Amino acid sequence: MRILITGGAGFIGSALIRHLIQHTEHEVLNLDKLTYAGNLESLASIASNSRYEFVQADIIDQATVSAILERFEPQAIMHLAAESHVDRSIDGPSDFIQTN
């Protein structure tokens, strides 16, 4: 199965991707903007796996997301991308409104 995961460099997303690559035969495309919460170091153990692909992009970029969907043809999408820090939402709510 081909699975697109948004926010895959975050805490939960990276744990999910590591599990899928290590314990299944699924292909995983990780779509992440790599903001303050994203950390590719947490995916170092599976980064070179042929069933894993990383794309740095913003989920609000419709053209990029459409191109990824057309090329990868995922059979499932797990949407984990989100702005999550409350203090940041007070200082800059527009990012939270667009992403969440």
Describe this structure in words.
The protein has 100 residues and is an alpha/beta fold. The protein has one domain (2-99): Rossmann fold (3-Layer(aba) Sandwich). 37% of the residues lie in helices and 20% in strands. It contains 4 helices and 4 strands, in the order E-H-E-E-H-E-H-H. The protein has a 4-stranded parallel β-sheet with strand order 3-2-1-4, with helices on one face. The radius of gyration is 14 Å and the shape is globular. The mean pLDDT is 90. This is dTDP-glucose 4,6-dehydratase. InterPro entries: NAD(P)-bd_dom, NAD(P)-bd_dom_sf. Residues 4-100 form the NAD(P)-binding domain.
Topology:
Blueprint: E1 2-6, H1 11-23, E2 27-32, E3 52-56, H2 62-72, E4 76-79, H3 86-91, H4 93-99
Output the keywords.
about 100 residues; alpha/beta; about 35% helix; 4 strands; 4 helices
Query: By CATH's scheme, which homologous superfamily applies?
Result: NAD(P)-binding Rossmann-like Domain
Radius of gyration: 14 Å
Unreliably modeled segments: none
CATH architecture: 3-Layer(aba) Sandwich
| Termini gap | 26 Å
SS-based structural class? alpha/beta
Helix content: 25-40%
Beta-strand content bin? 15-25%
Averaged pLDDT, please?
90
Number of DSSP E strands? 4
According to CATH, the fold-level topology is Rossmann fold
What is the CATH class designation?
A: Alpha Beta
Number of helices: 4
Number of domains: 1
Main beta sheet = 4 strands, parallel
- Silhouette: globular
Strand line-up across the major sheet: 3-2-1-4
H/E element string? EHEEHEHH
